[in-house]
């Protein structure tokens, strides 16, 4: 199997992870950050997402008018983000960034050079019902925000598929795709396979991180974005958990969710399945059930 390493002349590894919201992407990011203290690294957390939502070229207006001023990040232009990601890090072996896939839609000329691009996907049913559930929690529910107000035109998955098409067909790159449920079922093996494909050093304890934020000392991020997502509860499980654990079985009755949520799921299915067919798979079906704990 051909790998997709992106290395500099000094064997520095640069990897990008694109994902939808509510896809375990921050938990995955924390798995990578367990290399703190073992591998010199720097991790950029959602820089293009910050530009998309809070920067001077933001693509979506805040659904809560009173927060428009306090959540501005005037320095987060798309060109500035690219310059940060393309900067020299002579003392780092790994440069990694995680972003929401839709945040770069229509801005492909700002994709940073020198990166191995990877995509994390998850069943739209799980993603959109989880997003909707967040909007119903206090204090967010006070503002009665609709899912459509915080989603791009293509309901996230069309934008992600378009990104995949651009990376593979226009730029001719190999893109590694992971499905969140495969990681949940067999995290250690999937992480090892991902690391083999990208060149990231693999460690047996990558699925377990500290309950504190010691590993996040290598992260660079917008404090305002973190604050907003903290209020929403976007990162609650990834930030308060200590690793990956056994899942609880649950069924979802989509018909009980709002029309826009059902529309998002239905529309996104076609793009999800196209990406799902191309996902990275283990050589056998052996798996061990786990989840963020």
Give a written overview of the molecule.
The structure is a single chain. The chain has 293 residues and is α/β, with parallel strands linked by helices. It is 35% helix and 12% strand. The chain contains ten helices and eight strands. The protein has helices at residues 25-33, 47-54, 78-85, 124-135, 157-170, 180-185, 187-198, 223-232, 236-240, 259-276, and strands spanning 13-19, 41-45, 94-100, 116-121, 176-179, 219-220, 244-245, 291-292. The strands form two sheets. It has a six-stranded parallel beta sheet, with helices on both faces. A two-stranded antiparallel ribbon has the order 7-8. Helix 4 packs antiparallel against helix 10 (259-276) and helix 5 runs parallel beside helix 10. The longest helix has 18 residues, at 259-276. It is globular. The two termini are 33 Å apart. Mean pLDDT is 86; it is low at 286-293.
What is this entry, summarized?
The protein is of the alpha/beta class. 35% of the residues lie in helices and 12% in strands.
């Amino acid at each position: 199997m051909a790998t997709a390493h992106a290395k500099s002349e000094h064997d520095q590894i640069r990897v990008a992870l694109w994902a939808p919201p509510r896809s375990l992407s921050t938990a995955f990011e924390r798995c990578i950050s367990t290399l703190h203290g073992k591998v010199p690294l720097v991790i950029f957390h959602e820089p293009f997402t910050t530009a998309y939502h809070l920067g001077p070229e933001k693509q979506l207006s805040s659904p809560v008018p009173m927060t428009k001023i306090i959540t501005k990040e005037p320095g987060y232009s798309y060109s500035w983000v690219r310059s940060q990601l393309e900067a020299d890090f002579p003392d780092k072996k790994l440069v990694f960034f995680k972003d929401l896939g839709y945040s770069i839609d229509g801005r492909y000329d700002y994709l940073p050079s020198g990166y191995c691009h990877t995509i994390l996907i998850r069943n739209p049913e799980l993603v959109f019902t989880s997003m909707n559930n967040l909007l119903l929690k206090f204090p967010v529910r006070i503002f009665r925000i609709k899912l459509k107000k915080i989603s791009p035109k293509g309901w996230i998955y069309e934008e992600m598929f378009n990104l995949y098409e651009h990376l593979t067909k226009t730029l001719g790159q190999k893109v590694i795709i992971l499905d969140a449920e495969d990681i949940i079922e067999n995290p250690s093996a999937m992480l090892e396979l991902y690391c083999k494909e990208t060149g990231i050093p693999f460690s047996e304890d990558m699925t377990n991180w500290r309950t504190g934020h010691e590993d996040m000392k290598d992260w660079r991020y917008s404090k305002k974005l973190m604050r907003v997502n903290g209020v929403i509860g976007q990162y609650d499980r990834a930030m308060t958990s200590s690793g990956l654990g056994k899942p609880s079985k649950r069924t979802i009755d989509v018909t009980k969710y709002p029309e826009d949520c059902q529309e998002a799921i239905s529309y996104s299915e076609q793009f999800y399945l196209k990406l799902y067919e191309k996902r990275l798979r283990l050589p056998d079906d052996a798996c061990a059930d786990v989840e963020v704990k």
